[in-house]
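User: quick one, sequence for these tokens?
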């Protein structure tokens, strides 16, 4: 991991409250794993503000060389609202790549990816990395859910990867009306995958974990929580593990991607 000043390459609005921002980065990001994240600090703001974690959405590679990273974020408060105002040529402070990403054994060829809302952020990086190692990408399946069609992101990008896509929205404005986990359970019951990978709200991840357990499918989940440092120093991102009542795991260093069976939070 390296602390550096990253130059803004672009900052594009991609929905009613969603943005993609591209940042320069050091060469070490070429080895970043899907699910890893950065800690980002806005130097334009008061320096007492803590940095915030953001998943790596994709790598920006030109002619085989890493040029930068892209983040996908939703404006939900003051920090992200100010981040949306940055323009090409501005600078941000970033530390990364950090954390533990998804680990997919080569023998796994049929993978279900489950996304809820902004949980899609690290999952495009995962899906694009799988394309190079999966013999037939169409055997993989993306289940993507949101409150409405406005919360369903990256469909064009995922379509280019030739994976099968299933959509659910709470209001029925796009895809099936209902929960994305209902679609997941139906598909898993019919033909279980080699592994399920998911990112989204805790309630959704809990449902995914229970479905995986019910049908004896390995499951990895990327969880989001408040972080102050991103490197295991502050211990502020502790979550309870299943190895004992006094056993806690820390999202920034033990995760953010966990084997779903290792957590006692559902």
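Assistant:
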């Amino acid at each position: 991991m390296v602390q550096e000043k990253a130059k803004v390459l672009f900052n594009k609005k991609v929905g009613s409250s969603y943005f993609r921002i591209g940042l320069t980065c050091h060469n070490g990001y070429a080895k970043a794993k899907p699910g890893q994240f950065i800690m980002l600090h806005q130097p334009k703001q008061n320096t007492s503000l803590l940095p915030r974690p953001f998943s790596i959405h994709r790598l920006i590679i030109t002619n085989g060389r890493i040029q930068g990273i892209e983040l996908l974020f939703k404006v939900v408060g003051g920090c992200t609202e100010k981040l949306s105002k940055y323009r090409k040529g501005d600078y941000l402070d970033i530390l990364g790549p950090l954390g533990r990403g998804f680990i997919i054994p080569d023998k796994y060829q049929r993978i279900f990816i489950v996304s809820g809302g902004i949980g899609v952020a690290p999952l495009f990086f995962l899906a694009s990395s799988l394309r190079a190692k999966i013999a037939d990408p169409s055997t993989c399946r993306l289940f993507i859910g949101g409150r409405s069609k406005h919360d369903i992101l990256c469909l064009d990008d995922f379509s280019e990867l030739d994976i099968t896509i299933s959509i659910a929205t709470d209001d029925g404005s796009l895809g099936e009306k209902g929960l994305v986990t209902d679609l997941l359970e139906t598909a898993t019951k019919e033909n279980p995958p080699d592994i399920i990978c998911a990112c989204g709200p805790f309630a959704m991840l809990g449902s995914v974990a229970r479905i995986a357990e019910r049908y004896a499918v390995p499951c990895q989940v990327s969880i989001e929580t408040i972080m102050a440092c991103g490197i295991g120093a502050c211990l502020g991102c502790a979550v309870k593990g299943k190895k004992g009542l006094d056993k806690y795991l820390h999202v920034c260093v033990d995760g953010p991607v966990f084997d779903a069976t290792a957590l006692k939070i559902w």
